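Known limitations

Structure tokens in this collection are predictions and should be treated as such. Users comparing against experimental data should check residue numbering before alignment. To illustrate the layout, the record for GNAT family N-acetyltransferase is reproduced below. The input appears on top and the generated tokens appear beneath it.
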Amino acid sequence: MAEQIIWYLEMRDPKAHHARAMPETLGVVECEIPQFELNRFLYRLVGTQWQWSEMLEGDQNEWRAMVESDAHRTFVAYYRGAVAGYYELYRPDGVNVEILYFGLVETFIGMGFGAGLLSHAIDQAWRWPGTDRVWLHTCSLDHPAALENYQKRGFEIYHEEVAPC
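Generated tokens:
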């Protein structure tokens, strides 16, 4: 059976963030009006290449409730009018913000957008009033530069596990 490594990373102080400027050609907009179908679309658009499927297989009503809750925020990155990537922030406990999903559309990988978009996500997480900690997880099935990007922005690994693919 194939295995993957899952890394859990956190940032406990906004001063730990080693921000990278976002390219001027990349615009990011928050979806202030939740649209569950938009989140499904973005999840597929970005996640298919990385074998994201768990949300598509689970209870769609639970997923919809999460997306439509006040604890959830969605941001979409655009390049020349096209969706270039997105991220979701989730803070169900009011203090710990998870960068729930983060990624670029395959066409835009390698254009220098990843570090800047991640910095935008981190900034938005820390600007959410009441945030004490920002965290995320990634795995060995993700883009080869993902873990390094997270660490370069200031995240530290706090847990690692091996799981079946």
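For this record: The two ends are 8 Å apart (CA to CA). Residues 114-127 form the longest helix (14 residues). Please report discrepancies through the issue tracker.
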